[in-house]
Design a protein that fits this description.
The chain is of the alpha+beta class and 257 residues long. It has four helices and twelve strands. The chain is elongated, with a radius of gyration of 31 Å.
Length: 257
């Protein structure tokens, strides 16, 4: 397959591909748009708001609600470009920036990729610095409302749709992981309390009847000594702890699903 550049329009280059089959027979021409890679960034403030921008788009001749982003300049890494675009378009900078996903905007005719990042702890730190053909307005939206924007059709840019959908999936996974970890920690705590209370119940029972075991105490009516009010109270506390433990384990199972 041979390639031939046909035209350069600054933001992309038109390239003709002369196609051949495995035996060298001509299969016609295909045309691609060769351009720089892009980046965009889902920035989240410490209060849990997502930093969006309103931007006029020439293609649709309309305002578009989007996330900050743009072209990766020569010599920049995708992450450096995302940090720069966030600062230039919104004046915000973040504590951490991590890659969320990499996609191909339109592999049928385009050769470039788009890198999406999550920027957490985003705060306004400087003035905006728009390109000559840019004029944007920042809009903060609670992360809980992002799905409403998507479902309601307020976000129409396909790359932004994909980025925000990936962000929401990521947040749900993180939330489930947090719940699982919390449930495990709670279970460990209650298990430790149960063991302490079991020993307390057993020690008190052995004061009343030396040598008694937990197996014996399954049928306390066979042992009148275990009708002692103090023992019954401690045994009731143990039963309560075991009920809580059963509930915590059920919750942990739900979180793991």
């Amino acid at each position: 397959m041979r390639t031939q550049p046909l035209a350069d329009y600054r933001i992309f280059e038109v390239v003709r591909l002369e196609l051949e089959d495995a035996e060298g027979r001509a299969r016609g021409d295909a045309f691609t748009l060769r351009g720089s890679d892009w980046c965009n960034v889902v920035a989240v403030t410490p209060e849990g708001q997502v930093v969006l921008v309103w931007q006029y788009r020439f293609g649709s001749d309309a305002l578009s609600l989007e996330i900050p982003g743009g072209v990766i300049d020569p010599g920049e890494t995708p992450e450096q470009a995302a940090v720069r675009e966030l600062r230039e378009e919104t004046g915000y900078e973040a504590d951490t920036v991590e890659l969320l996903l990499t996609i191909e905007p339109n592999p049928a005719i385009q050769t470039n990729r788009c890198f999406t990042f999550i920027a957490r702890g985003a705060r306004p730190t400087s003035a905006t610095a728009f390109d000559s053909q840019e004029e944007l307005e920042t809009a903060l939206v609670p992360s809980a409302r992002v799905s409403d924007l998507l479902d309601g059709g307020q976000v129409t840019h396909s790359l932004v749709q994909g980025a925000l959908e990936a962000f929401l999936r990521n947040e749900r996974r993180a939330s489930r992981a947090s719940r699982r970890e919390g449930a495990r920690s709670m279970e460990q705590l209650v298990v430790a309390l149960e063991e302490l209370q079991r020993q307390r119940v057993l020690e008190l029972a052995r004061r009343l009847r030396p040598g008694v075991t937990f197996e014996d105490m399954r049928n306390p009516h066979d042992f009148p000594e275990l009708g002692d009010p103090d023992w019954q109270y401690e045994d009731g506390v143990l039963a309560g702890i075991q009920t809580v433990l059963a509930a915590v384990r059920a919750r942990a199972n739900e979180a793991a699903e």
